[in-house]
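User: Hello! I'm new to structural biology and keep hearing that structure can be predicted from sequence alone. Could you demonstrate with ceramide glucosyltransferase? Please show me the input and the output so I can see what each looks like.

Assistant: Of course. The first part below is the input, the amino acid sequence of ceramide glucosyltransferase. The second part is the output, the predicted structure written as tokens.
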Amino acid sequence: MSLSYSKWKLHRTVDRSPPEQPYPGVSILKPLTGVDPNLFSNLETYFTLDYPNYEVLFCVENEHDPAVMLVNSLLHKYPHIEAQLFVGGMCVGVNPKINNMQPAYLAAKHPLILISDAGIRMRDDTLLDMVQHLRDDVAIVHQMPFTCDAEGFAGVYEKVYFGTAQARMYLGADFLGINCHVGMSSLIRRCALEETGGLSAFGEYLAEDYFMAKAVVSRGWRMRVASLPALQNSGTRSVGALQARLTRWARLRIAMVPTTVLLEPLSECLPLGAGAAWAAGQLFGAEPLPFFLVHVLVWFLSDWLMLRSVQNGSPPFTKVQFLLGWVWSECCAPLVLAVALLNPEISWRTRCYRLDWGGRAHELKPKLKF
């Protein structure tokens, strides 16, 4: 289902012809914390967008953050682009991203808000593609998470995960009308967000993107996935960092949707294959091991086709590298869920949180060391 949907949904040609009505203005919120080797080039792509009316609002928590100097150099390099830097944030809850963006959100002057994480690299036609997906009843257009090409096993692992397991869930959920909103690159109508109480209303959640979409859709609006995936381009990739991130996301899903614990293993290749092989042996007398191996082979080939569809061509590594990355990703998936279950405490940058059932977060005080 996801593979067929991806062929229809992703990588459509963006219409660059002049519109009948002027495109609405967009305020881009860019929350920043620290720098990495790719940050400058990532941010620079927001100054070269092929869109007639937008502003870029950078947000940092601390005036001593090294991102301040980097942003100021971009403001000097592109004086013709409307851009501002907001420093200090505003405390409206426990979510540091919301607190960081709140002053910029209040100052935003356009009817459309694009919330875009620091590590996202934009093609020049991405914003145009997202706006063209809006309809009168559509309030949110979001990009499916994917990654830029990168060297090393961590880059292979990241691309395999986001191009197979994540893409399956994301596209399948969108096709079935299930809330799959990930807010790393999300365009939202400001009027719809104000109906829910504004950006500050989601400061009590760490997964503000999920609850934002839930609140907006509950008021009769619809969501759509853009045809161009969000290109994550972190300058510091590692296997451990990606697994820590996936574990944090799993903890959030468990707290928000507890049925995740029961249903999510059934979406993974190895647990589902083992269960199906046992069931086929019990019901039909089939040999479990050959059944399991055929299941894994078909799943592997389907994931290769899925990755090619999301990549819009051949991935930047060999089939052997894909095999290694795929085996690692599939073997780690049940372990990630188990770790999330055994330790529900969430670490995000320098802060720690604990979640109530339903998703509300409480920041934990740092433990004193003697």
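User: So the tokens describe the shape?

Assistant: Right, they're a compact way of writing down the 3D structure. Reading them back into a model, for example: The CA atoms of residues 67 and 78 lie 17 Å apart.
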